[in-house]
Structure formats: structure tokens, C-alpha cells
Amino acid sequence: MKIKERFVFLLCSDCKNRNYTTHKRQKATYKLEKKKYCRFCRKHTTHKERKL
Ligand SMILES: [Zn+2]
Fold it and tell me: How far is the CA of 6 from the centre of ligand 1 (A)?
């Protein structure tokens, strides 16, 4: 069985830059939130998902 996935952006919560892309299952309802390094802020910030 094929799992459908869609791509999402991960936005820095500080500068709103789209630093990363990732993917998640199409029917997933949870919101992605990850601590990642932002090269614009030059620090680790919370990144939130945004649809492509
Ligand atoms: Zn940033």
C-alpha cells in the first residue's frame, strides 16, 4: 500500500523564513513543530509548518 505524503515548509517563528521542507502523511492532523537551526537568526528556533 502506498502512503500518500505531502510536502510542507518549516518556517522560522522569529524571521518567518522558509528554512526547511519536509513531508508528512496526507491525513495527519497534527502540526509539525521542530527546533531547528535558522541561518538567518543564527540560532536554534522553533520552526512551524506551512503548506507549500
Ligand atoms: Zn529565523
Answer: 23
DSSP class of 31: P
Q: Which CATH superfamily includes the segment(s) 5-51?
A: Ribosomal protein L33 (2.20.28.120)
Residue spans per domain, the chain: 5-51
Q: How far is the CA of 23 from the centre of ligand 1 (A)?
A: 20
pTM: predicted TM-score of the whole model, two decimal places:
0.81
Q: Over 80: is that where the pLDDT of 52 sits?
A: no
